[in-house]
Amino acid sequence: MDIKKLAPWNWFKKEEEESGATVPVKRTDNQAAVAAGGAASHPIVQLQREMDRLFENAFRGFGFSPFRSELFTPLTDSGLLKPQVDIGATDKEYSITVEVPGVDEKDVKVEIANNTMTIRGEKKQEKEEKEKNYYRVERSYGSFQRVLSLPEDADQDDIKATFKNGVLTIKMPRKALPKSDVKQIEIK
């Protein structure tokens, strides 16, 4: 029995280790008020975060992904934009999708270094309205970064990425790992 199959790969371990290395974001829309203590200071949201933290600590040793629910908090505690990441696997490849609505393809970068994939981007949105008696311009800017720790069977030389309708899709083939030399010891 392969015990490693019971504990899935923790794709976010580098991001958890380097939680202080995120890219700062300046927000100019309504979410800045939430990050400044609006809904984030509500007792139910605080209880949810505490429960998430307890579950993360309990299951971290087993290699499970974080349990954080971002239903109420699309921003991190410090107000950083953190796009949703979905990771799937088949016997032949890994599939990673990142939801980045409002971001242009040219503003997204994917890099690999030291078995770590870094996905960065910048959101620039400007809305301008001109009417008979008024003029209004709204701007929203923000940066994001997600850091994924790659499993050892990921083929880093044949990665393909596509971007369509605000969704980044990354396909990464899996390669066969060399068999470990197992030597049977005779018991007498």
Protein described:
The chain is α+β, with helices and mostly antiparallel strands and 188 residues long. It has one domain: Immunoglobulin-like, CATH 2.60.40.790. It has helices at 13-17, 31-35, 43-59, and strands at residues 85-89, 93-99, 108-113, 116-130, 135-149, 160-164, 167-173. A four-stranded antiparallel β-sheet has the order 1-2-7-6, with no helix packed on it. The chain has a three-stranded antiparallel β-sheet with strand order 3-4-5. Strand 6 (160-164) and strand 7 (167-173) form a beta hairpin. The longest helix is centred in the first third of the chain and has 17 residues, at 43-59. It is flat. It starts with 12 loop residues before the first helix and ends in a 15-residue tail after the last strand.
Key structural traits:
188 residues, alpha+beta, Immunoglobulin-like, four-stranded antiparallel sheet, three-stranded antiparallel sheet, 3 helices, flat
In DSSP terms, counting alpha (H) and pi (I) runs of 4 or more, how many helices?
A: 3
Q: Spatial order of the strands in the main sheet?
A: 1-2-7-6
Give a short account of the largest sheet. Answer: 4 strands, antiparallel
Gyration radius (Cα, Å) is: 21 Å
Terminal Cα span: 24 Å
Overall average residue pLDDT: 76
Q: Can you count the beta strands?
A: 7
Kindly give the count of domains. Answer: 1
Percent of residues in helices comes to 10-25%
CATH C-level class is Mainly Beta
CATH fold-level topology: Immunoglobulin-like
The CATH architecture? Sandwich
Task: Tell me the strand percentage band.
Answer: 25-35%
Q: What's the overall geometry?
A: flat
Q: What structural class do the secondary elements suggest?
A: alpha+beta
Order of helices and strands: HHHEEEEEEE
Low-pLDDT segments: 21-36, 68-79
